[in-house]
Amino acid sequence: MLRKALRLATSSVFTSTVVPTFLIYRIGLATARRLGQEGCKVIVSSRRQENVDKAVKLLTREGIDACGITANQRIKEDRQKFLKFASEKFGGFDHVFISAGVNPHHGSLLTVNVFNYFLTFDTNLKSNFQFIQECVPYMEKRG
Question: Pfam families annotated for this entry (predicted)?
Answer without folding.
Answer: adh_short
